[in-house]
Amino acid sequence: MPIYYPDILDQRTEPRTFTYGDKDVMLYALGIGLGADPMNEKELPFVYERDLKVVPTAATVLAAAGGGGRPAAGASTRPLPPGHRVSQINYLMMVHGEQKVELHKPLPAWGTFTAEGRTVGAWDKGEGKGAVVVNETIWTDEKGEKAATLTGSMFARGDGGFGGPTEGQPEPHQVPTRAPDLSVDIATRPDQALIYRLNGDRNPLHADPQSAKMSGFPRPILHGLCTYGITCRAVLQEITDFDPAAILSHHVRFSAPVFPGDVITVDLWRDGKQISFEARVQARNVTVIKNGLTVLR
């Protein structure tokens, strides 16, 4: 299933319209652990329909929750120009590398949007070394105005050696070298992945012990996008006083899996409107999120 370059850069998905509601918004918030204390009045607005707030990173699941689905990396449903070849990536060998959500306006508690995806970059690591494919999905609202841009970087372990560029990939954000300005511990629940998967990603790796063992893990792992959402939760809690409208974008690089039940320590550095962060599990001495950057409005 080869990558054809530069043909892959012409691949786009057909625009698709989806609608999400308050239930989808609240389920996502519960999936990243908000509302565990029902007396916490700061978190309650994310999990209760009165004056409902939306976690910015919910954009990673709301299209799927609303029935629109999420396009596979490199997928193409629009006809290509004559003579162009369709790239088919080996998704069984795919690993999520980076994720960014940029909100051009705060997300409403419910709404209808149109999403269109395209491949914006592909870099060749060499035969047997894999490839990096970057896909972008743009949401527009019912007025035709841009609402959100989602950018995902995928490491295609089985698709190196296709003859594409080897240099020019965007450099990751570098966190400050000074000690963190603050750190926060966020505990995950043993059943966290079972809740989060109801947002749409039902990969058995996150629920079935046997599937996890076949993938080389001692037990099911937490979704990377759940860890992503937890880091956004840390910024909401420690920086914005739980105001989601204060967040313009949230970007991470995934570096290691989290197991449900782990305590995640998020280290944060504040420099004006830029919030750098990394996340680690101290009990296992592993960094699970690197090169994190939140930009405030």
Question: Could you characterize what this model shows?
Answer:
It is built from 6 helices and 10 strands; from the N terminus they run E-H-H-H-E-E-E-E-E-H-H-H-E-E-E-E. The protein is of the alpha+beta class. The protein folds into 2 domains: about 5-20 and about 65-155, Thiol Ester Dehydrase, Chain A, CATH 3.10.129; about 180-295, Thiol Ester Dehydrase, Chain A (Roll), CATH 3.10.129. Strands 1-3-4-5-2-7-10-9-8-6 form a 10-stranded antiparallel beta sheet.
Discrete helix count:
6
In CATH, the homologous superfamily of the largest domain goes by the name Hotdog Thioesterase
Count of strand segments: 10
CATH architecture of the largest domain: Roll
The count of domains is: 2
Largest sheet: 10 strands, antiparallel
Spans where pLDDT lies below 50 across 5 or more residues? 67-76
Order of helices and strands: EHHHEEEEEHHHEEEE
CATH class type of the largest domain: Alpha Beta
Silhouette: globular
Spatial extent as radius of gyration? 19 Å
- CATH topology descriptor of the largest domain: Thiol Ester Dehydrase, Chain A
Derived from helix and strand composition plus strand pairing, the structural class reads alpha+beta
User: What fraction of residues sit in β-strands?
Assistant: 25-35%
Summarize model confidence as the mean pLDDT: 93
Helix content: 10-25%
* Spatial sequence of strands, sheet with the most strands: 1-3-4-5-2-7-10-9-8-6
Termini Cα gap: 42 Å
